[in-house]
Amino acid sequence: MQNYTRMLEAEGICKRLVETYPDIFPDVDPNSIVAMGLQVKRPKHYLANIRIPRGIIKALFEMLKTKYEFVIEIPLISWAPLDKARKQWILFHELCHIYKDPETGKYSLLQHDVQDFALVLKNVDIGWQRSEKLPELLGTEPFKF
Fold first, then answer.
1. pTM metric for this prediction
2. Residue 9, phi then psi, degrees to nearest 5
3. Burial tier of 54 (Cβ tally within 10 Å: 0-12, 13-18, 19+)
4. What is the CATH number of domain 4-130?
């Protein structure tokens, strides 16, 4: 069985990103995201992974009467050494997967979408994960996309 820890730091970053960039995340409720840190011995092939709760997790959320629409899973071993800017960009990327159908109002997750990729390429280049000068998204002024 996997061992998870709630990550209030990551949830706070997500909430601030949604509130700071309403034009990019118009349909995301900042309180609809829970972040869970996964205890692993070796790094995963991803730094974070967003999901819509299904099965037992969805049932548990309904039983507890939570409003969570999304779970972001973060391998703790990969998260710990990251600086503030990198954490923000990783979570920004995950939030860009969220799509709300305007007709049905139902949420789904987009595959790596063009909007996110274009925003990253235009502003921080393709090697952003290794960039020495990655700008903060939640600094004193919002980042200008």
1. 0.86
2. -60, -50
3. exposed
4. 3.30.2010
For the chain, give every domain's residue range. Answer: 4-130
What distance in Å separates the CA atoms of residue 17 and residue 24, rounded to the nearest whole number? 9
CA distances to 17, 55, 77, 113, 142 from 130, in Å: 21, 36, 17, 21, 22
Alpha helices in the chain (DSSP H): 8-20, 55-63, 76-79, 84-95, 114-124
Q: In a structure prediction context, what are the per-residue pLDDT tens digits for the chain, which is 145 residues long?
A: 578 899 999 999 999 999 999 999 998 999 999 999 988 877 777 889 999 998 988 898 899 999 899 999 999 998 989 999 999 999 998 998 998 999 999 998 887 656 666 777 777 766 666 677 788 999 989 988 8
